[in-house]
Amino acid sequence: MIDLFNETSLLALIILPLLGVVLLMLIPSAYKDVVRYSALSISTIVSLIALLVYLSFDHSIQGYQFLYTYSWLDIPGVWGEGSGAISLDLGIDGIAALMVLLTGIVMFTGTIVSWSIKEDLKDFFILYFLLLSGVFGVFVSLDMFFFFFFYELSVLPMYLLIGKWGSSSKFPTFARSKEYSAMKLTLVLVAGSVLIWVAIIAIFIQANLGTFNILAIEKVISENLSSDFQKIAFPLLLIGFGILAGLWPFHTWSPDGHVSAPTAVSMVHAGVLMKLGAFGIIRIGMLLLPEGAQFWMPLLIVLGAVNVIYGAISAMGQTDLKYVIGYSSVSHMGYVLMGIATLHYLGLTGAVLQMFSHGVMTALFFAVVGMIYERTHTRDSLVLQGLAKKMTVTTILFGIAGLTSLGLPGLSGFVAELLIFMGIFQSYGFGGIILGAFAVLGAAITAIYILRLIAKSFFGPISTQWEDLTDSNLRERFAAGILVLTILLIGLWPYPFVEVIKHGVDPILSGILGAI
Amino acid sequence: MTNNFSLLIPEFLVTGLAFLILSLDLFISEKRKNHLVWVGVIGLFGILIITLLIFSNGILYQGLLVFDDYTNLFRIFFLIAGIIVLISSNEFVKSNIKYQGEFYGILIFTILAAMLLASSSELLTAYISLELLSFGLYVLVSFDRYNLKSNESGVKYVLLGAFSSALILYGISNIYGVLGTTRFDEISLMLVSINDLNPFLILGFIFLFAGLAFKLSAVPFHMWAPDVYEGSPLPITAWLSVGSKVATIALVLRLFCESLLEIGNEWQLIIIVLSVATMLIGNLGALVQTNIKRLLAFSSVGHMGYILMGISALISINEDGSISTGMTTLVLNGIIFYVIAYAITNFAAFTSVIAVYNHTAKDSISDFAGLSKRAPFLSLVLVCSMFSLAGLPVFAGFTSKFYLFNAVASQDLLWLVGIGIVTSLISLYYYLMIARQMYIEEGIDLSSINISLSIKLVLGVLLVGMIVGGIFPSPLMDLIELASEALIS
Q1: Cβ contacts (< 8 Å) between B439 and chain A: which residues?
Q2: How many domains does chain B have?
């Protein structure tokens, strides 16, 4: 039984959502409750498998775990028989294990939050599961072809999800229609994958093995992937994945896209999908191109610092709740990128923990804003006032997310950001101290805009139009509660998580430091 | 030397079927002519089964026609494609076209021509098959005779098609004049033995390439495609974009692999230039279209660019001057896989468009607004085919594109692949605009669209084909590999 679980659980994470898609297609769309409960049961099963995978991941054993291989397609060529050149190789290290857990949590809570969608519920869940199958696939793939396959798969449903179920925003000076945001997001992300595609093919040819397997290519880095090649190929991956991670100056799709998306999609997109970008830099960029990473990381740490400050300042100027969170995501992904760029044990661990922590926190943010928007039909912080009187629990939930975001000790954001700051200070000497100062400054600005936002929208006298508001219901509280518990767990007891991350971080760093 | 005519049985049967339909048409009453299409479908289906059963390798007429795995793959392909076109044109023909018997008869003659093109191994045989295909299409394009646009496109197609045929013929005569042979294998031997290329020979090949590029609608010979696509009856547009294109590609692949590989360095640059121009113009041209037929015309021009990119990468000469067959097989696999994926996807797109047109008689993109409410299954197939054409997973379009691009890049043409990937990003925009009309925009007319069972079945098969081609391609790849090994050996 345990053997069976070890071999097939990762496959199940990809296949079950797809089976869910097929199952949902067969249910007539008139049966809304059947659709809802089937979606919920699929989500629950997949999330439980994700949780079990994380719990049974043994960080004391070196190497990738839960390995699964299926030879998919042969590629003939000069490199011999080419049998199984593309194979479905699945496996996770500590970093991927944590990301799988994150995806499970967000998937489950996102399903609960989507309960109240009225229009075309069935189609929504079909695309939602397609999206999540792609996300799980990226995190567990050890083959570059399938990595890219699932990466593209997770972009595909976004256009329709945002364009159909999203909401347009109108400001006094400019308007953003949901169609505009959806098209912008899709085209920009696929533009990023153009670079990734070129880089993947280049690595395949240069490695000259006739296989896309990441672990096989890793073994021949020193022989076949010359230092010059790595320096040329790495920026392609850095920008390609960086676009998805919200790297400045390619981040503009992210606030627009997150604002227009429906709640659950914002949660998955800001919570999980942006992490695919950072994960891609680690998994393909740093693992396969260690010297390229070494060469380009100073650029990334500077861009990351710009991300932090620029995102935070932009968030300060926004009045729309979702735009504030959207820009704050850009700012927080800056920390992740800076952490990655340290190439230091503490910084990289912090970056991965920040990926997890930010994922949960943003999911909570978007879930809460979704609750408010559903009741007030506005997200304008100039109109919202004194909501705490009527929506007490919602206010507390928003407050927790806000405090995590500004790095209050005891919550998850603090641990992650602290590790990243320590990594930055230790890694780049004097430059590191300056950049670290910028990073800390970013946290301070975050405190300003988050606290101001909470004060403006939730406290103060309640305006008369909000007198009839109802507080969040049990279903919404349950979803938010899971996210809050996760945040508290990491904040108060981060050690087990750090242990798991260390399992993934150590081999990558030793590869990079060994290459010098 | 005796000829083993049993090799030609499928071709004989297809010819017989065409004459059967033409003569049945003379005798049955006007009302029953609706059933002629089923004679064609059942006939082609029977021929398909016979082709699968009696399959054997061999050559005919001292090698003018070659029957190998490659021929057979394309024979089967054209028979299946013919069945799909016949079924999807059924309702359209019933309501829009007089003289059904001639329509189906001529259509089946073009299927025969396509099958012969895949087996031609000599320039004149190839030319005759190509003319049989083109003449059939000239008639079919202008078949809607009371429609001005159909007439316009017919005239354009005939004039330009005849011009390109003249180019091909002139090219062939030049080649024959210099080399003294028109057989592919002998051309290859002669090209190796002569040291410097005679200017007339170069001229001959340039004319030949230009004529074939016209048939493939490669830029700068693509101008006819949008107009002809727009004017033709819809099922013929589908057949133009799949049948005639794939038939020409089948010929081109055999010509290049069997006779021109040795002098690859001489023509590679020409094809690369054609391919870059075709990818760019095709995809950029599609951005501004408002009519779905014109959009699909430009999109298929763009796809021809990717295939030309593959053809330009066919040669792979080692440092010592010998040819590396391993890489050529890889690229050839990629091209054939891409062609099949393109055909399945394009058929899916066109069949959905035909089904909509049968109901609404409109074919501009904005008429698809709100389609997801009116015909959910149809919209699903159409949106999937759009994603597949754009090269997104889970569909055949993604896997085949990845395979082809990877193969081309392995021939040191990564920069060319880079251009290809960027143009496929451009194409995503206009494919998404169609998805937007169907799923996001609200339609004015909300009446639901009824689709006949036969069309539903075809759409279902094509949808499954797109998905299986994308996630489980290895059985198909095994067949393709046999075919390309037959060509390269």
Answers
A1: 160, 163-164
A2: 1
- In 3D space, the residue among B136, B5, B139, B130 whose CA is nearest the CA of residue B61 turns out to be B5
Q: What is the pLDDT of residues B127-173, one digit of tens each?
A: 999 999 999 999 999 888 888 888 888 899 999 999 999 999 999 99
Q: Residue A70 carries which DSSP code? A: E
Spatial distance between the Cα atoms of B392 and B401, rounded to a whole number of angstroms: 9
pLDDT digits (tens, 9 = 90+) for A36-81: 888 888 899 999 988 888 888 888 888 888 888 888 887 776 665 5
A179 reaches B (C-beta below 8 A): yes
How many other C-beta atoms lie within 10 A of the C-beta of residue A70? 10
| A78/B324 Cβ within 8 A | yes
- In the beta sheet, which residues pair with residue A70? A88
Of A391, A504, A496, nearest to A454 (Cα)? A391
Give A160→chain B minimum CA distance, Å: 7
DSSP assignments along B212-241, one per residue: HHHHTT-TTS-THHHHHHHHS-HHHHHHII
- Crossing angle of helices A121-140 and A94-113, in 10° steps, is 170
Give the whole-angstrom CA distance, residue A125 versus residue A128: 5
Backbone phi, psi, residue A441, to 5°: -60, -40
Please tell me which of the candidates B410, B421, B474 has its beta carbon nearest to residue A205: B410
Distance in angstroms (rounded) separating the CA atoms of residues B212 and B134: 12
CA distance A333 to B64: 65
What whole-number distance in Å separates Cα of residue B255 and Cα of residue A476?
66
SS3 content of chain A, % helix, strand, coil (to 5): 75, 5, 20
Write out residues 379-418 of A within 8 Å (CB-CB) of B. none
Rounded CA separation B32/A397 (Å):
72
A160 in reach of chain B (CB within 8 A): yes
| Euclidean distance between CA atoms A294 and A292, whole angstroms | 5
- Answer yes or no: do B392 and A77 touch at CB < 8 A: no
Structure tokens at B457: 């079945």
**pLDDT score at A178:** 83
Distance CA B232, CA B379 (A): 23
pLDDT for the residue numbered A78: 66
Question: Which of B371, B386, B402, B424 best probes binding to A when mutated, by most A CB atoms within 10 angstroms?
Answer: B402
Task: Flag whether the ipTM exceeds 0.85.
Answer: yes
H-helix or E-strand containing B65?
A: strand B65-67
Residue A77 falls in which region: left (phi positive, over 0), alpha (psi -120 to 50) or beta? left
Min distance A497 CA to chain B CA atoms (Å) = 33
Strand partners, A86: A73
Kindly report, residue by residue over A169-181, the tens digit of the pLDDT: 777 777 778 888 8
The domain in which residue B188 lies consists of: 5-488
| DSSP letters for B382-423 | HHHHHHHHHT-TTSHHHHHHHHHHHHHHHTT-HHHHHHHHHH
Take residue A213 and report the two structure tokens written for it. Answer: 């397997």
Burial of residue A170 (number of CB atoms within 10 Å: 0-12, 13-18, 19+): exposed
Quick check: A72 and B474 CB within 8 A? Answer: yes
Residues of A in contact with B383 (CB under 8 A): 160
Residue at A491: amino acid letter: G
- The answer for residues whose C-beta is within 8 angstroms of residue A291's C-beta and 6 or more apart is A227, A230, A231, A515, A516
CB contact under 8 A, A76 and B326: yes
**A239 in contact with chain B, both atoms CB, cutoff 8 A:** no
Nearest CA in chain A to B396: A149
Alpha helices (runs of H) in A62-177, residue ranges in sequence order: 94-113, 121-140, 144-155, 158-165
The answer to whether B273 and B218 have CB atoms below 8 angstroms apart is no
> What is the arithmetic mean of pLDDT over B94-103?
83
The answer to whether residue A187 neighbours chain B at the CB level (below 8 Å) is yes
